[in-house]
What does this fold into?
Amino acid sequence: VDLHLAKAAYIGLERNEGPERLGLHQLAFTEATSVEEKIKALLGLVSYYSSISEYGRAIEFGKQALSLVASHPALDRYSCETLTLLGVSYFTSFEDVTLARRYFQEAIQKSKDFMDDLKVVRVLATAWHYLGRLEDAEGRSREAIENYIQSEFYQEQCPDELMSVAFYHLRMGETLMTAGVMDHAHDHFIQSQRLFHKSDNRSTGEVQLNLALATYYAVQGQRQKAEEVYRNAIQRAQNKGFVRGELLGLGSLFGSAA
It folds into this structure.
């Protein structure tokens, strides 16, 4: 099961969506024999469907995982990741932001019992990160920045997490740009870019960074540069099968040309 999930994660580095990656996640679930393996396989499916914007399926599998964890107290450490992934799906889909906040807060509370587990610490950093994104989406820049800093505090306890730190700088840059602090926003974008280039696991991060940079250039009145970077982001999204990123890029490109 772990081998199938690891291979699926590796394939996801190059292409977000595809039958091979999905097939490995399904195979992991089919071959799972223990409850712990079933939970791992379900969480893999949650991550996969969330990454391709099929949030209904992600939430469905997340609830199954949460039910299994709840009925097996010895596996309670998996509740932190399950709650966080459910929160991500509810937040990113904008289906229920209030419920997303509750899931993130529950994950943070649960994690206190498992701080000796680096996997849980990584999940804790993710929960704080998405709480920051939630605050930013609701226009509370100060609270967003505080949550991002809290996320980075836990992220620094996890070795070799370049991509996560790159995302930290990306979100900080977006929040500062929204607040009108453009110079500092640009500094964070450049730091994010540097870290994504150093990381072997770039995921969809570079696409998201290019979208943010293009928006930065548009706000600064550099329309031609903005359009160039939007087109680059769209091309990268298409190459990775990152449909949501492609649509965001196209919408932004047309908006900038209007």
User: Anything to note?
Assistant: The CA atoms of residues 28 and 241 lie 22 Å apart. The chain is about 80% helix and 0% strand. The radius of gyration is 18 Å. The chain has a mean pLDDT of 91.
